[in-house]
Design brief:
The protein is mainly alpha-helical. The protein is built from 3 helices and 2 strands, in the order ββααα. The termini are far apart.
Amino acid sequence: MESSKLITDPLICSGKPHVQGTRLTAEFLQSLAATGWAREEILGTYPYLKPEELDLALAYKLI
């Protein structure tokens, strides 16, 4: 089983940290939460996103 993690790749998402195997950036997921999206709503909208991946993205410190 592949571990969940945030990665950066200059060729994907303009180098922004994103959930591995997706184009969901930490910044995007944090913005959803900041605008009032519930955890269940985010996970329901992006069913391929694992709960632990969402946790990583929400905990990530953006510069």
